[in-house]
């Protein structure tokens, strides 16, 4: 047999190598999907919104994905809109915003998403996340103790409250987190906030792509500008916990389990089936003749879990609570029918 000339090998293997390079995943990623270190961490394209952690160069972890599918959830949205039109005629509210995410499909709807509200006690959820993020690398943090000394800086008296802290008693961070979430205790919240740098709240919101909106008009007696947010922004705190995409699995479970222990049952839980687990948190504010009531929760309906957030503004807190209860019931019944 005669030896095969070198140029024959080249002619045979060059196309093969080209194909291999073309379909090599690593090559494809490195050329077409290199991450821009300055790119936004929340990107909206067509009907999909994708949130990622702030890029560090080689990895860009996914935080949440929202798919706006008006067709899939249109019948439910029509029911909600009809209900809201009726309550608007009755003068029950001045503003309502609703966020719903079918966690099975990722489809979501948002009603009046651009309206801004004072999150009030909902800010206890990012406080929880901040502490648990640090506890991932410093587990002893949860056993650290702080002495409760009442402070006049708590300008907002809670209307809805259960147990409160005892003056002069020491509490572990773990206990304070429980009081803050389960009882929505403002004193526990302020004591925890006193022991972290406030910049961490801003950094967390930046990480989640939540705009820094400030408004001193909504609550003019609040002692300065207040952080205000839309319903879709607050929903992100719950999305990242459900996805375990910011905290590790252990700490995400810690947070969600704590949220299932919330003692408040007069809002979105009141008219849905008992025994359905819900990780939820409410926020309320009454000031200058104006009330706000909000509630967010992950409803662990079998085979059809969903995330619901309702933010409201009106004259009477009790009417707003009833509105949240009704909206929750409408959505629960619809989602239950899709199991």
Please give the CATH class. Answer: Alpha Beta
CATH topology: Beta-lactamase
What string, H for helix and E for strand, traces the elements in order? HHEEEHEEHEEHHHEEHHEEEH
* Count of separate structural domains: 1
Number of helices: 10
Second-tier CATH architecture: 3-Layer(aba) Sandwich
Note the gap between the termini. 71 Å
Strand order of the largest sheet: 1-2-3-5-4-12-11-10
Shape estimate: globular
Largest sheet: 8 strands, mixed
By oligomeric state, this entry counts as: single chain
Determine the strand fraction and express it as a percent band: 15-25%
CATH superfamily: DD-peptidase/beta-lactamase superfamily
pLDDT average, as an integer? 83
Secondary structure class reads alpha+beta
Low-confidence stretches: 6-40
Number of strands: 12
State the helical fraction: 25-40%
Rg from Cα: 24 Å
How would you describe the overall organization of this protein?
It is built from 10 helices and 12 strands. The protein has a single domain, classed as DD-peptidase/beta-lactamase superfamily (Beta-lactamase, 3-Layer(aba) Sandwich), CATH 3.40.710. Helix content is 37%, strand content 21%. The chain is globular and about 50 Å long.
Which key phrases capture this entry?
339 residues; Beta-lactamase; alpha+beta
Reconstruct the topology from this structure.
Layout: H1 6-23, H2 25-32, E1 42-45, E2 48-52, E3 62-68, H3 74-89, E4 95-102, E5 107-111, H4 124-137, E6 145-147, E7 170-172, H5 173-182, H6 186-194, H7 199-207, E8 213-215, E9 226-228, H8 231-242, H9 249-259, E10 278-287, E11 290-299, E12 306-314, H10 317-336
Parallel strand pairs: 3-5
Antiparallel strand pairs: 1-2, 2-3, 4-5, 4-12, 6-7, 8-9, 10-11, 11-12
